Amino acid sequence: MTWRGSPTGGDPHRFGTEAFYASLGRAFVAMCAVVPVLFLIEALDVGLDANLAGTAGIIPHRIQGLDGVLFSPFLHADFNHLYSNSIPLILLGTFVLAAGTRRFLWSTLVIILVSGLGVWFTGSPNSVVVGASGVIFGYLGILLTRGIVERSWWNFGVVLLVGLLYGWQLIGILPTDERVSWQGHLFGLLGGIAAAIVFRRRRVGLPAPEQTGSPTVPLG
User: Fold this and answer.
1) Residue 167: which of 187, 184, 144 has the closest Cα?
2) Cα 212 from chain centroid?
3) Distance of alpha carbon 76 from alpha carbon 53, whole angstroms
4) How many helices (H) and strands (E) does the chain have?
5) What residues contact 31, with CB distance under 8 A and at least 6 apart?
6) For the domain bounded by 18-198, which CATH number is listed?
7) In what helix (H) or strand (E) does residue 68 lie, and over which residues does it extend?
8) Which of 177, 88, 179 is nearest to 138 (CA)?
9) CA 205 vs CA 148, 208, 209: distances in Å
10) Nearest one of 108, 112, 107, 104 to 187, comparing CA atoms
11) CA–CA separation, 150 vs 173, rounded Å?
12) Among 77, 124, 159, 210, which residue's CB has the most CB atoms within a 10 Å radius?
C-alpha cells in the first residue's frame, strides 16, 4: 500500500517519488529515440544527394525560405554538425520532457517558431540556416526560467546542473563572425523563456479546512 505523502508513487513532479524517476526515465528513452531519426534524415539526405539543407533550410528575408522555420530543426549541414547537437539535445530535452508531454510539445513548437522567425527576420539573406541548436538553446531557456517561475527546489537543481554543463554556451547568443547562427541561439533562448512562463505549472492552493460544529452567529 502506498500512503499519501510517502516517497513512492505519487506526484511525478515531486523529486524522490517513484513517479518522478519513472517520468525522467521515460523522457530519457524518448529523447534517445529522437536522435536516430535525425541521423536517418541526414543519412537519406546524403545517400540520395537530396540537398535538403539547401532547399528546406531557413533563407532569411525570402518567402521561399520561410518554410524552413518548421523544417530546419530536423536538418543539419553534415554529420559532425548533428553529432555536436545530439548530446545536449538528449540531456536538456530529457529534463524538459519529464515535466509533461503536452507542455514539452507546446514549448517545442513555441521555440521552433520564435527561433525560426527570428532568424528569418534578422539573419543574412545570403545564408541558409539549419540545425537543432535553436531548440537546444530554447530548452536551456526553459530550464533556466522554470526554477524561478515555478519556485521548485528540483528545478533550481536542474538550473545549477545545466549552468555548470552548458552555461558557457550562452556566449553563442552573441554576434560572431563564425558560421554559427547566433540569431537562432538568441531567439531560441527567448522562445524557451517565454514557453517556461506561458506553460508554467500552476501551484494548487491547499483546500480550505472543513468547518465542524454549529456556525458562529455574529452578535449585533
Assistant:
1) 144
2) 48
3) 6
4) 8, 0
5) 89, 90, 93, 94, 97
6) 1.20.1540.10
7) helix 68-71
8) 88
9) 18, 9, 12
10) 112
11) 25
12) 159
Q: Under a CB-based contact definition with an 8 Å cutoff, are residues 115 and 138 in contact?
A: yes
Question: 154, 157, 177, 153: which is closest to 165 by C-alpha?
Answer: 157
Beta-bridged to residue 58, according to DSSP, are 129
CA-to-CA distance for 95 and 89, rounded, in angstroms?
A: 10
CB-based burial label for 11 (10 Å; 0-12, 13-18, 19+): exposed
Q: 109: closest CA among 137, 135, 132, 147?
A: 135
What string of pLDDT tens digits covers the 220 residues of the chain? 333 444 445 666 665 678 788 989 999 999 999 999 999 999 999 999 888 988 899 999 999 999 999 999 999 999 999 998 998 899 899 999 998 999 999 999 999 999 999 999 999 888 899 999 999 999 988 988 887 887 777 767 777 777 777 666 666 566 665 677 889 999 999 999 999 999 987 665 544 444 444 444 344 3
Nearest CA-CA partner of 155 in 194, 196, 206: 196
Q: Grid coordinates representing 24?
A: 525522467
Distances (CA, A) of 40 to 33, 36, 83, 214: 11, 6, 13, 70
Whether the CB-CB separation of 186 and 118 falls below 8 Å is answered with: yes
Its pTM stands at 0.82
